[in-house]
Specification:
mainly alpha, 18 helices, globular
Length: 438
């Protein structure tokens, strides 16, 4: 008699530890969007690995990879803020269909270029510019749609599931990408990405329209200024942006993976894929046991500690060039920490923002999330060109820790921030949820 309650208690504790799947069970449209992104996200990760690898092979230069990063960063900086105002004013479902078609065409163009005997580096850069511009519209639109598809009290779990989705793609996509490059070549890798967009487009065709709210502002400079003004008055939101920039600018060594694989670990494209996949494996494992995240009372403190672990793990990765397996372990730890940081930061931003501004604030958030790693690639490439890739990685991880201290001092409210617990669903979110469940 006494063993049964104990076993039941252990099972209940295990369920609380595992990722919360309730948004997938309760909200049909969210479930469709999520599953569609599982497939297309893996294809996107293949191209994310193939493109810098192709540029490095063509030029044998980490500086050229840094130039590619700048080319991808410019449209993100130009278009992201405007994309948020558009997402607040139009049907987000229709906008996502258009962006997915545009991104598929971009990957097709890269496949065509890859089969040329002497691919044009200029043409590759142009396509990368266009694809990054379209992606800068797609990402804030997709993220700001999530609160319209689930009830407010399910939002932290939905954000965690999105991270699980993204990290699963981060595991499979780079590993498959490395194998595809090694077996069928770059053109085949890009073609595989094109094929995966079909899943996302089918899912988007099946969900209900995500129409703008009646109170939505017209897109334009005034709407952008309103979003920026709102963010400027919320220090806790600004602090999440600042700490993520610190982590990504100093501690993101993705641009150095080709150089490390070819000149330090000597394991070629497969090594590139494994290094890119390792953070995703760690993040995926962390997401699987993330059922506790919705019970954290001080998410700001969780963000701070997650970024500290990230910086330490990246520095340890840079010091582990004597063992590729150990280096992958530290990348996995870094990925788990980054996933937790992303969940807590996104939850703070989404729940601190009213729905009529969510597209614009999300666009600022996505601008930080997408531009930060690019700035990190630039920083890492520049340091590597002067002092070598290993020094660039180790110094970046240590500078990340210094940056965390600076952010905590500049924004003391981050550590003290407490999320509102179990908000009551708004009329808009409630109706959206009801429609999704049908």
């Amino acid at each position: 008699m006494t063993d049964a309650p104990r076993r039941g208690s252990r099972r209940q504790s295990a369920r609380r530890l595992l990722v919360d799947l309730s948004p997938l069970h309760e909200h049909r449209d969210y479930r469709l969007l999520w599953f569609g992104q599982v497939v297309s996200g893996m294809g996107n990760q293949v191209t994310r690995i193939a493109l810098p690898f192709q540029v490095y092979v063509l030029t044998n230069s980490v500086v050229a990879v840094g130039v590619l990063t700048v080319v991808q960063l410019i449209p993100i900086l130009i278009f992201s803020l405007g994309a948020g105002s558009i997402a607040d004013a139009v049907d987000r479902r229709r906008l996502l269909i258009l962006t997915q078609i545009g991104m598929a065409i971009s990957s097709l163009a890269l496949a065509v270029l890859a089969i040329q005997p002497a691919p044009s580096l200029t043409a590759i850069m142009i396509v990368a510019f266009v694809a990054a511009g379209i992606g800068s519209v797609d990402q804030p639109t997709r993220s700001s749609a999530i609160p319209r598809l689930v009830a407010p009290d399910r939002l932290p779990s939905a954000i965690t599931l999105n991270q699980l989705n993204f990290q699963a793609a981060g595991i499979v996509g780079p590993a498959v990408g490395g194998l595809l490059i090694a077996t069928v070549g770059l053109a085949g890798a890009y073609a595989a990405d094109v094929a995966t967009f079909a899943a996302s487009l089918v899912a988007l065709a099946m969900i209900a329209p995500i129409a703008p709210l009646v109170t939505a502002s017209r897109p334009g400079l005034a709407a952008i200024r309103a979003g920026l003004a709102f963010a400027a008055k919320r220090p806790v939101i600004l602090s999440t942006f600042a700490i993520d920039l610190v982590a990504m600018i100093f501690g993101m060594p993705l641009a150095l993976f080709p150089a490390l694989a070819l000149t330090v670990f000597h394991n070629g494209p497969v090594g590139v894929g494994l290094m890119a996949a390792a953070p995703g494996i760690g993040a995926f494992a962390g997401a699987l046991v993330s059922g506790w995240v919705s019970r954290v009372e001080h998410p700001g403190r969780a963000v701070i500690w997650a970024v500290v672990v990230w910086g330490l793990a990246i520095a340890a990765f840079g010091l582990s060039t004597f063992s590729f397996a150990l280096a992958l372990v530290f990348l996995g730890i870094a990925g788990a920490a980054d996933m937790l940081s992303a969940v807590f930061r996104s939850t703070i931003v989404q729940l601190e923002t009213p729905d009529e501004l969510r597209g614009r604030i999300t666009s600022i958030h996505m601008l930080v999330v997408t531009s930060g790693p690019r700035f990190g690639d630039i920083e890492a490439s520049a340091v590597a060109a002067l002092a070598g890739p290993q020094f660039a990685v180790v110094s970046g991880g240590l500078l990340c820790l210094v940056g965390v201290v600076a952010v905590v001092r500049a924004f003391p409210g981050l550590a003290a921030h407490v999320l509102p617990r179990r908000q009551a669903p708004s009329a808009t979110a409630g109706s959206a949820s009801a429609g999704s469940a049908q």
